[in-house]
Structures
1.
Amino acid sequence: MSERLEDIAAAMVADGKGLLAADESSGTIKKRFDVIGVESTADSRRDYREMMFRASEAMTKYISGVILYDETIHQKAADGTPLVDIIKATGAVPGIKVDAGAKPLAGFPGDTITEGLDGLRERLADYYKLGARFAKWRAVIDIDVSKGVPSATSIASNAHALARYAALCQEAGIVPIVEPEVLMDGAHDIDTCYEISKATLTKLYAELYAARVALEGTILKPNMVLAGKKSGKVSSPEEVAERTIKLFRETVPAAIGGIAFLSGGQSDEEATANLNAINAIGPHPWKLTFSYGRALQAAPQKAWGGKAANVAAAQAAFAHRAHMNHLAALGQWQPKLEQAA
Ligand code: 5MM
């Protein structure tokens, strides 16, 4: 495969393919395993992820790349094969989460700043040797308008950190996924999500430009524009599509390598329906696909339940969700396909 950044980025958003976000940190994967009653150990995490990476139908047909956590990129399958080699054998590109998580932003209660820039140049060089050809850094922007969250300082600081991260990635021959996640957890309406997302993306692209990042060799991982979970409102797929595309046309350069959405707490079917509606109102200047964590993994996690006997059922559940999102990335999904399954 080509090592040019723009070619790697293009492969990550190849027609009908998207990314599997399997980069849950140890704390997050423990929360997911608690739900299915599985103890989180290095071996159980390995077994679970090996199950997905060996799901050959899902991986070869629908998954362009996998975002890994530091532990996973070093792990070997039960038979001794490095997990990275299993991913590569399916044709998918291995990637790595390199941020050190969102921490409270000093002086701005309720805001966070994502850390991890110290030593990043050296870590990227190590990850490149291990096979990573893209990376991910997630900035977290919460919304609580009554408390003045997010502050302009939080948006600016996170955009600056994302730009410094992206420049270091490109220096290392690694495609940066820039993920400025405006959380959907709040009580805000869709207009507020739109305004905060607009301020965030405007600042992000100003910083990427100032940092001399080559946009063709980047992927944007954004939230969709929708009402917050605590607002009591559910935005329709048509409304989500219209507002999200309006936002991107106003803020996201056509030059970028592509867009791969996070699911952010939407149900798996909701995330598929919204992605489908977004692509159905195309054509758009960018490819728009998925980089889902929860919306791809909730069903296989439930089917797996930590038992080797359930591996085939879990792989089938993963293949189904990946297939549905493949269709949504092409704007060809229909609700009746879910019932048929
Ligand atoms: C898979 O979850 C990722 C890692 O989260 P933590 O660092 O908090 O453990 C997360 O960054 C993920 O890649 C994105 O948020 C997309 O995942 P969802 O579940 O929102 O689709």
2.
Amino acid sequence: MTRTLAVAALLLTATGCGSGPAVARSQWFTMGTVAAIQAQSMEEAKKGRELIQPLFERVNTLFSTWQETSELSRLNQAAGKNELTPLSPEVATLVAAALQIAEASDGAFNPLAGSLMSFWGFTQERAPSALSSEEALQEARKLADWHRIQFYPTSTPVRLYLPHPGMKLDLGAIAKGYAVDLAYNTLTQVGTTNALIDLGGNLRAIGEASPGRGGWRTGIRNPFVDGSCTAQFLMTNGEAVATSGNYERFVEIANKRYGHIMDVRTGRPVTGMAGVTVVAPSAMLADALSTTLFVLGPEAGVAFLKHYPGCEAIWIPDNPEKLTLLCTPGIAKRLTPIGQKQFISRVISAKDNNARWSEAE
Ligand code: ADP
Ligand code: MG
């Protein structure tokens, strides 16, 4: 009747399988998930962790929707109170990036999805035991109109105002990727040559796992079998990967499971998609796009991706009987199946805005 819990597969991020021969790994719990750094020796891993653990903590104190004193929570508490709130540089940066992606995706990515997250029970300890009325749903959906965010990026300091009580900024779809980029920048600045940063499945690679390997091998989770991967590829220096899945956070209301990614056009959690993985030049972009493409699905998603050169995607529709990976061409040619040929792979590419599908060889 009520809900199950938030994070189902903590240790099973994209690298939870198929990362090849053992490398040194240090991991810890933060931001409601597992963070890890891999390196060529335990000493390097620990040194890296010392540098990046405080960064992740700082991002959490800014963006957590669970901590009442976080900057984001304070912004949300000021909604409808006619106060222009000054933003820290980090929050200003992320709000600007989030609004840009909201605009480009026509709201598939929505930084005001917070009212719907609350409606569906993701911000409480327990989800509601029954669905609320359609009117209440439409009320929560109206509060998610991101066009109404008043954001003043050129004022000093940058300021923001949410004009209606109940409006809730939620940057959960982009903040972890942003944190990973901060870690990447810090590590490269101090001269780290080989490391893989992982924050709850948001990855960014520096160098290689061992001499001559050419990068870091990364697995694509099979969303239908706990702890197993279906394919892998080699992440090269600087590349980022993020995965959004309906299997990681969900609520159960009246015996039905609802995932944590909202289609704000309907006010309901997205259905039909099990997982989306994105490869991008930065972790922030990979994170934001994995959520956006989860909402858009492959047809609209592949057209949308034309605005993001250097980004590739894999969609896994929610069909456990027929594990299918729909891949953009750039990632299709880099994937190798793990174990038996256990999935159907198709290449999807955009031509004149119409998606074309073809069997991979
Ligand atoms: P995870 O946080 O599990 O890595 P995502 O990066 O896909 O997964 O982010 C999902 C989170 O983003 C949700 O938990 C919620 O906080 C927020 N969110 C939900 N729907 C949307 C949406 N349509 N656009 C932007 N953010 C969303
Ligand atoms: Mg995301």
